[in-house]
């Protein structure tokens, strides 16, 4: 099965594709306080959970979502219609790094999708290119809660410097020309809810679809669960930074 389809199935019951609860998501969007008639952009939007909630909170805002996979767009349109915001949401299928707009945005999101730009630093540069001078960004990135072992780095196919610790992550953002105005550090409970949902949703789908695709999905779920429970649980953290151009 394609990786994008596996990810889509795994997020069926947790459309926020990051270890962030719905309550934390809403608090971050409320803290952002975009101006009237705000333009909002999500780079790597998935099923647009952040944008649909933002449009519900800010009834005069408009939003664009960009993702290389459109497998979540149908659910995004359905949820946007249910909340009455579909007419203010535009979805674009294509690489986030290639997206171009005629006007800048008041709020730009890139949560759990910095890999689309090759990492945290290039993602911050790309986000800044879409922001108004006084605009804000919500950028979610991993960090090391404690130093990873060589075995974990091999398991994740990661380099030691791929992530910093929490302080270093904030310093990297500020070194890229931002000021941090707020942040949310995901709790272990948020991580557990996200990971159990990821592996459980994929496992349920696999059991309901016996055959080669079901076997592939079940294998992916078990591999991911082992990587989490036996590897990065309590080692890899996640922080969502609310940033303003300095």
UniProtKB/TrEMBL annotation:
**One Pfam family here:** Methyltransf_25
Q: Name one GO molecular function term.
A: methyltransferase activity
Q: Give the UniProt record's GO annotations in the biological process aspect.
A: methylation
InterPro entries referenced in this protein's UniProt entry, alphabetically: Methyltransf_25, SAM-dependent_MTases_sf
Asked if Transferase is a keyword of the record, the answer is yes
In this chain the Methyltransferase domain maps to 40-135
Q: Which UniProt keywords apply?
A: Methyltransferase, Transferase
On the tree of life, the source organism's domain of life is Bacteria
Protein name from the UniProt record: SAM-dependent methyltransferase
Its taxonomic placement starts with:
Bacteria, Bacillati, Actinomycetota, Actinomycetes, Streptosporangiales
């Amino acid at each position: 099965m394609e990786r994008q389809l596996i990810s889509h199935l795994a997020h069926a019951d947790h459309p926020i594709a990051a270890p962030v609860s719905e309550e934390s998501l809403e608090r971050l969007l409320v803290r952002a306080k975009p101006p009237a008639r705000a333009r909002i952009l999500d780079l790597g939007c998935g099923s647009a959970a952040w944008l649909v909630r933002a449009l519900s909170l800010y009834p005069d805002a408009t939003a664009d979502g960009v993702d290389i996979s459109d497998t979540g767009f149908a659910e995004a349109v359905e949820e946007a219609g249910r909340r009455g915001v579909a007419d203010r949401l535009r979805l674009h299928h294509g690489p986030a790094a290639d997206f171009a707009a005629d006007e800048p945005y008041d709020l730009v999101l890139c949560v759990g999708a910095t890999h689309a730009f090759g990492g945290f630093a290039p993602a911050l540069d790309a986000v800044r290119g879409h922001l108004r001078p006084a605009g804000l960004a919500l950028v979610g990135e991993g960090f090391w809660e404690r130093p990873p072992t060589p075995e974990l780095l091999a398991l994740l196919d990661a380099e030691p410097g791929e992530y910093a610790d929490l302080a270093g992550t904030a310093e990297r953002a500020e070194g890229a020309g931002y000021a941090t105005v707020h942040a949310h550090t995901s709790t272990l409970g948020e991580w557990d809810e996200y990971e159990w949902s990821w592996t459980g949703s994929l496992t349920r789908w696999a059991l309901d679809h016996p055959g080669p695709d079901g076997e592939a999905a079940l294998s992916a779920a078990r591999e991911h669960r082992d990587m989490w429970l036996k590897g990065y649980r309590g080692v890899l953290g996640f922080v969502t930074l609310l940033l303003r151009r300095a």
